[in-house]
Input
Amino acid sequence: MKYVVAAIALCFTLSLSTAQQKATESGGKANTERGRYIAENVALCIQCHTPRDGSGELIFSRAFEGAAIPVAKPAQLRVWAEFAPRIAGLPQYSDEQLITLLTTGIGREGKPLRSPMPTFKLSRQDAADVAAYLRSLK
Ligand code: HEC
Output
């Protein structure tokens, strides 16, 4: 019985210190509004991941729902993705996986994604803010 209590106490202490470490690494709490600003105006995620109407304007009511890439594969590239998947709500990625993607360019399968998805080298705080914003979308 003593051992069980000790094990629980140890797990609790360990998980607490991991949580504290994470908070310090990201400089505190993720900022959803700042994440929106980065995703829409700085890293321009919205430009590829949002569908467009007949005149090529973004359909804001469907922001980040996924969209066909409106340009053909450049002849000199071998790999090219024709569709930018839905990232509203982050259905395929955990927050940590998205942070890795946006800080290193490595996707959840352990390799870079196909062009034209850019290789981002954001700071951990910027990436965490974008993750918090995308997660908050329905
Ligand atoms: C120039 C267009 C473009 C921009 C800008 C862009 N993406 Fe992408 N993104 C893509 C394409 C195309 C894919 C699909 C890549 C593939 O299938 O290998 C993709 C894939 C992804 C994936 C993987 C989704 C999945 O379900 O597998 C995530 C997550 C993602 N992008 C997030 C972002 C975020 C966050 C930003 C902004 C910081 C961003 N993207 C900016 C084009 C873009």
